Please model this.
Amino acid sequence: MGSELKMIIDQVSREKGLDRDILIAALEEAIKSAVKKRYGACLDLEVNFNNVQGEIEVFQYRTVVEEVHDQETEISMEEAKELDSKCELEDCIGTKMDISALGRIAAQSARQFIIQKMKAAERDLIYKEFKDRKGEIVNGIIQRYERGNIIINLGRTEAILPTFEQISSESYRRGDRLRAYIIEVKDTQREPQIVLSRTHPDFLIKLFELEVPEISEGIVQIMGVSREPGSRSKIAVSSSESDVDPVGACVGMRGSRVQAMVQELRGEKIDIVPWSPDPAKYVYNALAPAECSRVIVDDSNQSLEVIVPDDQLSLAIGRQGQNVRLASKLMGWRIDVKSETRYQHYQDPDYYSLLEISTITENIADKIYDLGVTSLELLAQADPDELSQETNLSTELISSLVEEAKNLMKKGSEKEEALSEEIDINKEAGNEKEDLLETEEKVENHESQMGSAQDVPDKLHEDSRE
Model:
């Protein structure tokens, strides 16, 4: 029986990956608990696993007294002398207990206690293993679905891939092998919860580190990444050695390296661009394959105004603005892309007057401006039917624009007239104020002169008295 117990401990230790000492400690504690439930909770016990014999040994310790009042904790001198002839009062005598008669209920209780301790030890072991692996990529097999979340078997434990961390364009089946990025490890009461992601930007970074040796060696650095998972990504790279092309290293021979990551991400396009400390050059690279004519940098607001040829505008912006949006995320700057034609329009102050119309857009303003209607005044004078034919816009829309232009011109005229009247009133008020000041000054001078004339007789009177 002893060798069988030892064999079971060794087998469980190997299968569960638990320390043998942890299993033995759990077994000893379980037996101690079972003995106390069977024979008394106040017993002073010591439980040891005899590794040589492969047996559990239980010793009960009692204090030597003259008169026994508590059978569980005390032993008489006569009985103690039979066990140890040299014992004295107040000594502690240990006797080996026979636990073969514990019974089925006690054994079942011990078994449950051992299982509980084993689960707790296994949970702690798994948490310690994975808590420092946050930010790593793991491989697993899709086990099942739970309310849209995917449960992935990692071998010793299970991980969860939440719905919002899944790529919407991907489809997953039970039994498929999947790679994902660990974003969080939670220590819960039941078992550690490992949260995975396939949409996190760092997932792409880790894939590059695994696939490109120059990155793992530190020769090529990843300076930034932006993703729209399942659709397109941009990643900026630089090299610490002049003879190493960072883009070429990431692309690989005939695109083998980047293609491996595209396959892993199931078709997600990846743009690899060279990083630059100069924002103008950096945005030029980030907006590729579109070409830029001019870049205006605003360092204080971290914004860039990019001018591109007219035929490159849609390419620079991308489908639904994706290209410029990813470039902006990559750089952390605000990017405003304009065509050369629109940029030239913005140099004309009259063009801004057209944009004062509430219902007009820049595209409509461009069409009207290119036809020679270059100001609000000219638009107010335009023929709606003729302008509608030339711009291919509806007559109702053009009529509303012309009508609003007339209203704005009328309001502007009324405002100018009111301002002119206010200036005239202020001018008249200023003239009256000047006349009033002159009058007051004359009165003050007159009173001053009169005062001086009255002082002369008074002075003569004072002199005569003297």
The two ends are 149 Å apart (CA to CA).
